[in-house]
Design goal:
By secondary structure, the chain is an alpha+beta fold. The chain is built from five helices and nine strands.
Length: 220
């Protein structure tokens, strides 16, 4: 082949690649459906927080002492499930705490809140952090609507996945997502109960705009 023929072939290949690339990058139907299900689940979580606060002096569980029915003393442990469990009446079912895109084999969606007898064909109690896909912003308050209240657990700092437990993140922290769950994107429930679908860049921007110098997140 002559040089001109080679260049023509290369040009044709590039045109084909550019034509099909948008199709390859477009979310698949399953990805879209699981993303929507995750958004809806977090919206229900946000509503549960609001209802619980309405019955408890406008405070979220993490800001109220255990003796008063909250989970404040449990924050430092870094566990997540206890904060959700305390809102079982408002959440109705623990199923909404598990993202359908969460494929970690060590995690499992719970179908009931405790070990009580159930007519469920596959009863599985909500007993640990492995039964939820979402982190909790332990200092979240509805008086600061830009703070993180909950969201997908697959967070990174400086491109390293965060381990389960309590993490203190400065507003200038280089935060992002792993490929797990929503492929380098994710959902965050804000303290005003809205849910935002964020890329790594927009997640970083949202962290900068939380209005606090340090954001404490408990990851399951």
């Amino acid at each position: 082949m002559t040089l001109i023929e080679v260049l023509v072939v290369m040009a044709v290949v590039m045109v084909i690649i550019l034509a099909i690339l948008p199709q390859l990058l477009r979310p698949r139907p399953y990805q879209r459906s699981t993303r929507i299900a995750c958004v809806n689940g977090l919206k229900q979580v946000g509503l549960a927080f609001r209802i619980w606060a309405g019955d408890n002096n406008d405070k979220y569980p993490m800001s109220m002492s255990v003796t008063n029915g909250g989970t404040m003393e449990l924050v430092e442990s870094g566990t997540v499930w206890r904060h959700f469990q305390i809102m079982s009446n408002e959440l109705n079912t623990p199923k909404i705490l598990f993202c359908p895109a969460d494929s970690d084999p060590n995690r499992r969606m719970a179908t009931l809140w405790d070990r009580s007898p159930s007519a469920n064909s596959d009863p599985f109690p909500f007993l640990s952090d492995t039964n939820t896909s979402y982190f909790i912003g332990v200092d979240g308050t509805d008086t600061n609507p830009n703070m993180f209240l909950a969201g997908d657990r697959n967070l990174t700092v400086k491109n390293v996945a965060l381990r389960p437990g309590l993490h203190s993140l400065a507003t200038n922290e280089m935060i992002g997502w792993t490929k797990e769950i929503h492929v380098n994107q994710g959902n965050v429930l804000m303290a005003d109960a809205s849910v935002q679908w964020l890329s790594a860049a927009s997640l970083q921007k949202a962290l900068e705009n939380t209005g606090v110098t340090t954001n404490r997140l408990a990851l399951p």
